[in-house]
Amino acid sequence: MKLFTISSSLVIILGIAGTNFVAPTVAGQLANGTVFFEGSPRLLEAYSTISDARAWGAKYYFTIELPDNAVEPLQKVVIQQRGGSELIRFRVERTLAFSGTPDLKGESFSLEAINITPKKQEIELVFQEPISPGTTFTVGIIPKKNPRYAGVYLFGVTAFPRGEKSNPTYLGVGRFHFYRGRGGLYFYRDGGVINLH
Fold it and tell me: Which is the most buried residue in 36, 67, 145, 167, by most CB within 10 A?
């Protein structure tokens, strides 16, 4: 029997009784067809542009890094409110998605669907074109207004690779702190509050 190695993932075996082909294992895919990220995406930053309670005009940004070693492209992101005194409502028609960060915006990404599940307090964002590994990108969800009650509000972020059967990766929580009676615009970043006035 002769063994010819074509690549590290593809092997052809030639035998006397015929030719047997050993199919390559697809990177990032289980035997049952479930697709997963080999290298985990990371939630780099999450913040509200305005941190006053009851304020209008805020944007809630979530910046995610999909590393090169993720192998599989990213198809959707789910953001779920997991803490806070009240349920925040959103203007889904104004949802944003773009490469880069809020300070260094790149190209805009089109969303195929935006699904809201009120009982689960979650928003599902499905990208029209899957996001390639090696990309840092940001999604921005727009509240109708900031919550009435000051305090800490938590939003869990989960990323899904492309595929009908995909194994999601939970990226952690974005922590938003809303303040009462401060006046002016306050930004919440990395645990600090910056007064812009």
Answer: 36
